[in-house]
Amino acid sequence: MSQPAISALYVGHLREMMAGADRALAAQGYEGLIVASGSLRYLYLDDNSYPFKPNPRYRSWVPDGTPDCFVVYRPGSRPSLLFHQPDDYWYLPPALPEGYWVGSFDLKVVRSPAELKQSLGGATRWAVLGEPTAATEGLGDHDPAALTTLLDYARATKTPYEVECMARASAAGVRGHRAAEAGFRAGATEYEIHLGYCRAAGAREEELPYNNIIAFDTHAAVLHYQHLDRQRAPTVRSFLIDAGAQFAGYSSDITRTYASASGDFQSLINALEVAQQALTALVRPGKDYREIHLAAHRAIAGILVEHGIVKGTPEAAVAEGVTSVFFPHGIGHLLGLMVHDAGGFMAGPEGGSRPKPEGHPYLRLTRNLEAGFVVTIEPGIYFIESLLAKAKANGGGRAIDWRRVDALKPFGGIRIEDNVVAGAGAPRNLTREAFAGTA
Ligand code: GLY
Ligand code: MN
Ligand code: MN
Which numeric CATH code is attached to 3-155? Predict the structure, then answer.
């Protein structure tokens, strides 16, 4: 999509942001909104800072990622951006922002966050979104829950601009995934694959939406495996990669699993791939996401029985909790400015929560899907030593064929994860579009 097209999308997005803020501010009796990008944090006893991660509520207004900036909005006026450009020679001061979104703001350059107060003028009942700092102290209520609930609830529904950002984040992530698979086939280590991923995705490590999960063999049985081995065993059987990218703050979150050779594990991957595609087809407005999670358990039970890993019927495997031994996480989550995006459990715009299905504590989204929701669909089948041992010990593993489990354990596990947009027609699969080269 061309630059002018994304500009137009952004104008529409900002219009929706302003309309949503107008409603929420009026409902809660505030006259204006100040949204802070956040400040750098420093290491204990040190003058080095952690990588800067902007306040996602700020990022929902502007793609900018500069510390100590503020979006200031009063209903009825154009929003302003107070852009912090310190006079500094230790660090390069941030360049003035430019691009498709800047023209929508009154840009005011400030040399210190304290200038925020001077630039506000007039008494206004402000709501301030962001961690309290000296710059915002005394200006108004910080993160008032009734207001943030209204705003976060709405964030689940992505505007066309946000979907376009996520399509671009998917395209960048897929470039990384292609390089990663090539590295795996060519004999690279986990560490080398990570470096190749970053280069292909065009991201430095701190720009990734989450730490890459690059896992050979049994490492794939650790759901958020966090190391990058610099040695590669002579024989590597499998490779699971869960890695994303960002565009304008919006994330992709993509997982693929590969086998070194054809055989049992590859046929398990193939079966999960078919099930995963059927599950993505359920992403439609009105669908209770909890039902997709339960459908995943039924599908995985079928695969486990078909592959001789579990004895008995798939129905019994679900009813007795055996599928949770092999699939111990949720089927997915909302995706957006945060990888596990805001508002996944809300019962309505005023709050309240929708419960997780009994026995499924790790599901992160319990709402009915609506047009514009972007969710992940990420079923998995893993051979996790500790969960298997627990099942064996408590009798929950009676239906498990341990010989089959022992044969498959060295492969670690499988996860296949796509990012899917609910809409009027068939769901839009941003990940598959990107792999097909149409994004
Ligand atoms: N990459 C984290 C997740 O899939 O939720
Ligand atoms: Mn993931
Ligand atoms: Mn995910």
Answer: 3.40.350.10
Rounded distance, CA 152 to CA 290, Å? 20
Single-letter code of the amino acid located at 308: G
Q: How far apart are CA 427 and CA 374, in angstroms?
A: 10
**Cα(286) to centroid of ligand 3, in Å?**
21
Q: Is 341 in the pocket of ligand 1 (CB under 6 A)?
A: no
The secondary element (H helix, E strand) that includes residue 432 is: helix 430-435
pTM score of the predicted model: 0.97
> Residue 293, Cβ neighbours under 10 Å: how many?
25
Q: 353-376: per-residue pLDDT in tens? A: 999 999 999 999 999 999 999 999
Range of weakest confidence among 112-121, 176-185, 245-254? 112-121
**C-alpha 367 to ligand 2 mean position (Å):** 20
The helix/strand/coil state of 341 is coil
Q: Where in the chain is the domain with CATH 3.40.350.10?
A: 3-155
Strand pairing partners for 141? 127
**Nearest protein Cα to ligand 1, atom 2:** 253
User: 160-436, which class in CATH?
Assistant: alpha beta
Residues of the chain with CATH 3.90.230.10: 160-436
211 lines ligand 1 (CB under 6 A): no
Q: What is the atom index within ligand 1 of the atom nearest the CA of 417? A: 4
Q: Around Cβ 400, how many Cβ atoms within 10 Å?
A: 21
Say which residues have a Cβ less than 8 Å from residue 10's Cβ, sequence separation at least 6.
100, 101, 104, 161
